[in-house]
Amino acid sequence: MSHGRLAGAFRVAPLAVLCAVLTWPYAVFLPPEENVPLTVAGHLALSAALIVPLLWRNQPLLSFAAVSLVSFGQWLAQATPQPANLAVLVALWAVAYQCSFRWALAAGLVAELGVFLALLNWSAATFGMFFSGSILVVAVWVTGLYANTRRRYLEGLEERAERAERERDQQARMAAAAERARIARELHDVVAHNVSVIVVQADGAGFALDSDIEQARLAVRNISKTGRAALAEMRRLVGVLRESEAAGTDYTPQPGLGQLEELVSGSGVPARLLVGGAPAELPEGQQLAVYRIVQEALTNALKHGGPGVEATVEIEYSGRDLVIRVTDNGRGAAAPRSPDGHGLIGMRERAGMYGGAVSAAPRRGGGFEVLARFPMAKAA
Prior knowledge:
Elements: H1 3-28, H2 40-51, H3 60-76, H4 87-98, H5 101-120, H6 127-211, H7 213-241, H8 260-265, E1 271-276, H9 284-304, E2 311-318, E3 321-328, H10 343-352, E4 357-362, E5 368-375
Parallel strand pairs: 1-2
Antiparallel strand pairs: 2-3, 3-5, 4-5
Helix pairs in contact: 1-2, 2-3, 3-4, 3-5, 4-5, 4-6, 5-6, 6-7, 9-10
């Protein structure tokens, strides 16, 4: 039994127990008066028909309608009233608690009509009895409305708290973005200033190199000092710009073409590295882009290639272009797609920074191929 049904069963359990206890006295000892008497089986069936709809706690209007119709049929048949008729009040409270005011008002009027009709079949009915019954109906109705108002108030408080929390997080992100923008401007100023100083000192050293060695040496020392200061400042500011920067940032040189062999041998995939053509000296950034493309391609082969996959990494210096081809003999087109993968996008972005392009597709006959082509730039 689900949690909702269990809660509904506990809600109607007291009324069900009361009806079960009073079924025999109502069927045997109470005089029928003007009403048609019911047998024990009739009492049980009518009680069940009135109580079962109360289990529909997520459909209060339907539950109230069912209980009201059963009660109206009981009145038409002039059957003996019994404790199970209190189900009308339980259903009325549920409507007032869960539904809008207009539905609660309509349910309250229907319950009042039920009190009036019930007293019509009773010869000893008085206005005082109708007034007492109405007071009971109104009390249940008002209690349900109050609980509904209280629930909506608490839900509003919770929603405002969540909205305030979202706005606070958004303000924090905006403040962090503004601070990063300020740091970026500061970084630009620092780099521009120090580079200007280095250029001026280098020009001075060039002019003084033949005429004043000591002055040239002093300018070179100033260049070194300014460069080191600029590098330290850049490291500090860039470290702040990185949102996910760890406390112990490692400033070791980034990998390049010289580390490809180590990458291939330690990739976790049986792979070999083939280099063709005359190697050229490339800028560090372009070497890093090549390294990351090969790394991502080998990682994809390891993740999606399947058991027994092998890979080949080919680096070819062809005229003005550098061609990187990573192939494997894995599952190729049969490999499962990763819904949150961004590897190919990252490879294309890295290649695009240097005017290159990347393509990745399954090979005919099985396997996968990643092909990247870079125009070779000269190292500074």
